Every structure is written in structure tokens, then in C-alpha cells.
Amino acid sequence: MNIVVTGSLGNISEPLATQLLAQDHRVTVISSSATKKAAIEALGATAAIGSLDDAAFLTATFTGADAVYTMVPPTMSASDVLAYYRQLGLAYAQAIRQAGVPRVVNLSSWGADLDSGTGAILGSHHVEGILNEVPDVALTHLRPGSFYLNLYAFVGMIQHMGLIGSNYGGSDHVVWAHPRDIAAAAAEELTAPAGPAIRYVASDERTASETARILGAAIGKPDLQWLTFSDEQTQQGLEQAGIPAPIAAGYVEVGASIHNGRLGQDYERNRPHHLGKVKVEDFAREFAAAFQAPAR
What we know:
Layout (H helix, E strand, L loop, with lengths): L1 E4 L7 H10 L3 E6 L5 H7 L2 E4 L5 H8 L4 E4 L10 H19 L3 E5 L13 H12 L5 E7 L1 E2 L7 H7 L2 E3 L6 E5 L1 H12 L7 E4 L2 E4 H11 L7 E3 L2 H10 L4 H15 L5 H5 L10 H13 L4
Parallel strand pairs: 1-2, 1-4, 2-3, 4-5, 5-6, 6-10, 7-9, 8-12
Antiparallel strand pairs: 9-11
Helix pairs in contact: 1-7, 3-4, 4-5, 8-12, 9-10
């Protein structure tokens, strides 16, 4: 198969491209950075250098593809995050339609079924809606749970305060997903002629307190707790950490929706048939290595 992967050599896209190449598929990896060209080609893939908001570039790159993996790279610089998501979603839709791509697997998020109160995840909701309007394409939206990688944001808090704190925590139920498990699910869907309209992806399910205990054991802090702060405290802390207020407000919305259970309601109704391979205990070893690494 001829498969196009967006997302450059990111946490999901690189293992996805590697897996597809190992299965003898022809893979083109799109990156906005010309400096990634050599690394992409070193994998055995073809590099396509251009912008994801350039529909003409996308159309040319998608033409002849049997399947395309789409994703919207996270941003901390967009003045209007939702407009950024819609812009890329519309460019993808135009290119998929004009190139006649028969199979698309789109990276979305748990909570993308909701139309309010989910911060940047609302962008994934909009992209799903835009792509759903494209005719004659077998489309699957992957909805992973919260990325394990988000836990790295708490390293400084653990080092300086000895705890994890956010506006969700304690007994709140969290669905975790590792990039390798998301990549494996994407590879399965891309190489199938059709699939479910929605596929949830999860590596593990734990409470916040259980997650903290496992991470704490791995870093030599067995009594590590995950405390629940107010929305206001969380917003203030994020802003003090240098995160722009609108972006921080989006994080607070996501945390609140985990805390009140709203984010996971559709996940619970449409649980994956099986969980991924990377459990919290496995990720804890990765977390410990990062936690103990000397500061640069």
C-alpha cells in the first residue's frame, strides 16, 4: 500500500511510519521542517516537506495514496486554537476530496463527542465534523485517552512540592494512552480497507491516586499523592508557569471534564475491545528516567 503519514517524526507518527515500513508498505511522511528530511529518508520513507494548511500541497502529496493518517499538531502559539484546528481540518478535507483518497484514519481525542467545555479537544470535535462531510471515503477517527506524556508536565511540581496537583486527581478515573499503542491502532486501521467510524484507544485505566502511587514507587517517592486543586488554583499555577491564559483555561476545562466524568462518558459507552500494551507501570520506568535525568 501507498500510505501518507502526517505529523513528521512525532511521538505517534515516527513509530507508525516505522511499523508500516516494516510491513513493506510505501510510506510518505509529511513534515513542515526541511531539517527532518534526512531523518525521514533514513527510516526508508519518502519526505514531503510543506505546510499542513496548504491544501494544494496536501492534494499533490495525497494523490495516489491508498490511505492517509491525519493529525493536527499541538500548538502553543496560535492566537485562536479552535480556528487553527478548523483551518487544518478544512485543508485536509479539500485535499482528501480532490485527491480521491479512499481510506483516512484521523487522530482525534476522547471527549471529541462533546461540543463544549473541553478546551482544545473541542478542536478535534470540529475536525471530526469537517472530515465527516467528505464523501466516498472510509473514515475512522481514533480517540485516544489522555497521553501518558502529559505526566511529564508534573516533574517540576514533584521535585519542588513533592506532590502532583491539578483540578482533577484523587479517585478521578483517567484513561491513559501511550503513543506506541496509538501508533499500533493507527497501523491496523490504515491497512484495513474500512473500519469503525470511531475507535477508542487506551493503554490503561487507573485513578489519579493509583497513577501517582505507581509513578512515586518508580522515582523513590512511594507516598506521592495526586491532590485535587480548584479550577482557580490550577489556572493561576499554569499562568505562573508561563502558559498563556487562554491556553491555560483550555487545560482547566479538560481537567474539570475529567473530574466530573463528562470527558469519559462516551468512552464508557464504546469501550475498546482490548487495551494497549503499555501499562502505567511500564510508563513509570520511562517517567523515572526523565525524572532522574540531570537538568539542562
